[in-house]
Design brief:
The protein is mainly beta. The chain is built from 1 helix and 11 strands. Strand 6 and strand 7 form a beta hairpin.
Length: 130
């Protein structure tokens, strides 16, 4: 999955893929570096990317919200009871679907995300279940 600013985000690994690979193209010097992000205990089954964040979902029923530039985990969501099979980011909302047929909607507070990005670590990223 390709995002803006030359980043490529994908799940990877041997059977099963429990991590996320991020390839970052840098202009100066012109290189591509790779980062591997670990969090999920089971297979990563869903991934969505926008210009600020990416969101991963897993068979372990968790959803992780990641800062796209810093590659740090911002929040963990425990709203599903079964495998997360799909995630989509639309504007200021994110939607997740679960293997058991349930789905959730989340509101993304980008003001708080920017505050965290600019060093105000005490403020929480607000992603509220809807």
């Amino acid at each position: 999955m390709r995002s803006s600013a030359g980043q490529r985000v994908s799940t990877g690994g041997l059977d099963p893929p429990k991590y996320i690979d991020v390839a970052i193209r840098q202009e100066t010097p012109p290189i591509i570096r790779f980062e591997r992000l670990h969090f999920h205990r089971k297979t990563v089954t869903a991934l969505a990317v926008n210009k600020e964040i990416f969101i991963s979902g897993s068979q372990d029923t968790t959803i992780a919200v990641w800062h796209r530039q810093r590659l740090e985990r911002l929040q963990i969501l425990y709203h599903h009871r079964n495998t997360v099979i799909g995630i989509e980011i639309v504007g200021r909302s994110a939607y997740s679907a679960c293997l058991d047929g349930t789905h959730k909607a989340f509101s993304i507070d980008f003001k708080k995300l920017y505050a965290r990005k600019n060093g105000f670590q005490q403020r929480r990223l607000a992603i509220c279940s809807g």
